[in-house]
Structure formats: C-alpha cells, structure tokens
Amino acid sequence: MEAVADLREWMTLYYNVTNFIHLSTSSSRQTVSCTTTLSEISNMQLKVLESSPIYRVIATVKEMKTDEFYYNACINVVNARQCGKKTTRTADGWFCNYCNFESANMEFKYALKMCIEDSSSHVWAIAFQEATQEIVGMSAKELATIYMELAKTNKIKHTS
C-alpha cells in the first residue's frame, strides 16, 4: 500500500508538469481531457468511427508482436491525402483494393501490435505510423529492411 500512496503523491504533485510521450498526433478528432483507465474504456464498449473521441491513458507496453510490424501501403493520392491502405502483391507490382489503384511501388508503413497495460487491465492495440516511429526511433522502411536482411541470413523467421 505504500507504493500506491507514493504513486498517488507523485500524480498529485507532478502529473501536470511531467512530459509524457504522446503517441497520437491526430488533431481532427476530439480529445477527452481527463485521463482514464483501460478498464473504463473497455467498459464503454466504444465503436471505432472517424469521429471517435481520443482518450488519454497512461499505460506501459507489456509485449509487442515483432513478426508483423509493418504493411505494404498504397502510394496513391486521394483527395489530397495518401491512400495508405494495405496493398497486395501482383505480377506487375502492388494493388490497393480500397482505391482500386495499381503501382510498381509501395511504401512501408507501421502497424505494430502491442499489449499495453495500466493498473486496471491490459489490452491488445495497434500503433500505426507516427506512434510506432516515436517508439522505435526509425522509419518503417529502415526497420523492414533490417528485418528482411536478418530473414535472408535465417537469423529470424520472415512472415510478411
């Protein structure tokens, strides 16, 4: 119980002046100002929508799935934004079912599956491009290249 008291004291004194790594950079969605727990969010039974609010949670990464941390993304520009959806390999390159676009090129994008936990619960989540780049410290292309080189030398099993 002493650890709980220490944590409560730290939260009271330092929470508002401590710099945390924010893994969401979305400015187009409403951010709920209060911090909540994973358990409270799970109990809300939220549906993912384009206008879903963003909740702030202080959590720790418990585990990461390192075998599928990136995907091959569409490079087509739709409505002044890169499509970025997952593509499939074709004989001539890459095809995006979302925007019906075929290209000889694609872009590596992050989709890192991780288990995060706080004092109330744990949940599997996916950290996409900006968030994973903040965690990993390099681009998806750089890490995918290292991963594929290690797979070529049979130091790891390549699944993508």
TrEMBL record:
Keywords: DNA-binding, Metal-binding, Zinc, Zinc-finger. One of its GO terms (cellular component) is DNA replication factor A complex. CDD domains: RPA1_DBD_C (cd04476). Residues 56-148 form the Replication factor A C-terminal domain. One of its GO terms (biological process) is meiotic cell cycle. The keyword Zinc-finger applies. InterPro entries: Euk_RPA1_DBD_C, NA-bd_OB-fold, Rep_factor-A_C. Transmembrane segments: none annotated. One of its GO terms (molecular function) is zinc ion binding. It comes from the Eukaryota. Signal peptide: none annotated. Belongs to the replication factor A protein 1 family. This is Replication factor A C-terminal domain-containing protein.
